[in-house]
Amino acid sequence: MIVFLSTRLLALYRSLTAASSASLVAMLTRLIQPSARPPAREQLRRGNGHDSGAVPARQCGTHPDCRAIHERFRESDVLRGVFERIVGASIAAGLVGGDAFSVDASLIKADVNKRKRSSAEAAPRWQAVDQASRAVREYIAVLDAASAERAADGGGNGRRDGETRKEISETDPQATWIARKGIDTTFYYDANYLIDNRFGIIVDAEGTRSSLREETTIAETMLGRVMARFGMTPQRLAGDTAYGTGRLLKWLVDRGVTPHVPVWDRSARVDGKFSKADFTFDRERNVYICPAGKELTHSGVIDQGRILPYRSSTRDCMRCDLKPRCTTATTRKVSRDIDEDVRDYVRSLEGTEAFAQSCVERKKVEMRFAHMKRIHKLDRLRLRGLTGAKDEVLLTALAQNLKRLAKFVWQSAQPGPMPA
Ligand code: SF4
């Protein structure tokens, strides 16, 4: 059995380093479902019914046969099954420590022409397009689901509504327009990796739309999936500031995972006025004390489901000599996260030896992304739509893990330690 699996893994590994996306998909289907009958080589080459050969099969998303093949493959969740088998093999080989993980996300350009874009108001033009590409159909399905949910909650009329995003790609509407200093302004997806810090094995991977909210949500999903699938709960998780939200930190602490993550905090003022750090929280009385010694109280209102606003009294501020350094409004407001206690606990970890060690180990996930882009050329996606991004990210993570596994098998036969 071991010989059989090794032969298959090595064959898969050799193919992964050289094969195109379409042939990988076909190969993986054969690997996991030997009884499945893949399309004939000639069919794939010519486009599965595209007799003219004008449209290569891998670009087709509208021909009924091609749609059926692609959708059957995706529904089978074959890639995730293979990925989890490789992670399981890495655990069995002792490549996964299981006590310290790191998480990060990296932008990948979507396969679109950035000039083919429109404002969100143009989204309804897709409503009547039954023959739209898979990427557009996926986007419309997401909008429909959101509209139906709002209608069920009594918050809408069930009609398909456009989004509030400023720019939407006409070829891949789920990609996110990002205009940020230092990177090419275009449409992107995110690759999200959760790695084990011992040898950098990727224990989970997921392609998502590019947004901070998606990053923290998928971090929970990936960690929860690893806990459930492999029964591993790390003692600590390293991540950058994007993962330092109160919600995620609370989620981690509740599950016994120590977050070695800088706390997300935008309360520092750059205009010379007092910052939140200049106000002292009195836990017993549940008030903030301002630099003039006055109380800021909480009325019981919770903003956005998790922000507690504390306000000073108009009478105190009117008579205050420090007001020019405090606020231009009639009163001063200081916000407190509903999980601020957890945030304070995580702040207290910064500067510890273990936290510093996690910061060093976190570099390994950045190296995985560098490898992903430089060696596997995933700086630009080849498939469109969110499911295409998910497949490509998972496939690349799978290939990276296979390389690690093959390297370990080879190096374990050599004298000397295995490099991290
Ligand atoms: S302006 Fe109000 S909140 Fe600010 S220091 Fe003075 S009394 Fe305190």
Characterize this entry briefly:
The chain is of the alpha+beta class and 420 residues long.
CATH superfamily of the largest domain: Ribonuclease H-like superfamily/Ribonuclease H
How widely separated are the two ends? 29 Å
Radius of gyration: 26 Å
Cofactors and ligands: iron/sulfur cluster
What is the top-level CATH class of the largest domain? Alpha Beta
Number of strands: 13
Strand count, sense and closure of the main sheet?
6 strands, mixed
Helical fraction: 40-55%
Description:
By secondary structure, the protein is an alpha+beta fold. It folds into four domains: 76 residues, no CATH class; 161 residues, Nucleotidyltransferase, domain 5; 46 residues, no CATH class; 63 residues, no CATH class. It contains 14 helices and 13 strands. Strands 1, 4, 5, 6, 7 and 8 form a six-stranded mixed beta sheet that branches. A hairpin with a 5-residue loop joins strand 10 and strand 11. Helix 1 crosses helix 14. The chain is globular, with a radius of gyration of 26 Å. 33% of the residues are buried. About 10% of the residues have low confidence. Iron/sulfur cluster binds next to helix 9 and helix 10.
Topology, pairings included?
Elements: H1 2-16, H2 21-32, H3 41-46, H4 64-76, H5 78-92, E1 100-109, E2 117-118, H6 134-152, E3 168-169, E4 176-178, E5 186-196, E6 202-209, H7 212-230, E7 236-238, H8 246-254, E8 258-260, E9 280-282, E10 287-289, E11 295-298, E12 307-311, H9 314-318, H10 323-326, E13 333-337, H11 340-349, H12 353-361, H13 363-374, H14 385-411
The structure holds iron/sulfur cluster (SF4).
Residues 290-292, 294, 312, 316-317, 320, 322-323, 326-327, 332 line the site of iron/sulfur cluster.
